[in-house]
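Much of our argument rests on the idea that a fold can be written as discrete symbols. In the encoding step, the backbone of a single protein was reduced to a row of integers, each denoting a local shape. We regard such an encoding as a compact summary of how the chain folds. The record that follows shows the chain in one-letter code together with its fold in token form:
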Amino acid sequence: MRAITAAGLGGPEMLCLSDGLPSPEAGPGELRLKVAAAGVNRADLLQRRGFYPPPPGASEIIGLEVSGTVDQVGAGVAGWAVGDTAVALLAGGGYAEQATAPAGQCAPLPPGVGLIEAAGVLEVAATVVSNLKAVGLAAGETLLVHGGAGGIGSFAIPYARALGARVFATVGSAAKADYCRQLGADDAFDYHGDWPAGLAAATAGRGCDVILDIMGAKYLYSNVASLARGGRLVVIGLQGGRRGALDLNALLSKNALVTATSLRFRPAAEKAAAVRAAVDRAWPLYATGALRLPPQRTFPVAQAGEAHSYLETGSHVGKVILVF
């Protein structure tokens, strides 16, 4: 099969399309997909640079989500047949013509979503749905999403609105702020400025019940300061570093919670539960139109390096997709 391989750790120029690689075989409880497209995520950029290695036993090939057609069904798998279309959540191996995943980490395409476009749906849906479910975001509460115009934010804003929450976001430009408002955000704040002050004014000083954070250390102090009493900070990314000072007194005074999760390193059973939650809670919203696909930028798989360079600029809105 063909797949994207890396000549070494480093920049996007290290990626190339290689041929003649061995095809993976579907083991017991697994499906193999003929990959139509693969989602490109920030975690992929980190893996390329050597900062986010795959779990033990996972493919060294980059790629955490794909869409495609089932071409092999492993022993003990029920409910799937060769020829079915699916999306899959992977621990690695997505930038390849064939990829395997436990059947529990596979799902039918969302209603009304095409095969190529679906490649960018499952990772964000499973991440957002499982995390907001875990911290109990409820109707009437307030959510802050950092990076509101990216893949996570493009899903989280309309999803949280469908749950009945107020939603705010941070963004990098006025155009992206407008985009977030179009998605349903009550307001969006430029993170180049004093976004905590803007948020405090918008919430009349109360703060947010839940913050979904992709930045990590850089925003830790401001995030805790921006929580309401009983608020929950969920760290799902470390774009702003992994080590920061935590004001425990601020947490005590607010009876607040800080938690951090990574979808990639969860056990298979937890990943399967996250996929089921996404299908149960989000797929019906695609059917009604409450959730719609964000803008997507597609690249031929041979241009994986260009796709990574584009994502690294931070200028994108929505998702980036590699197409086989």
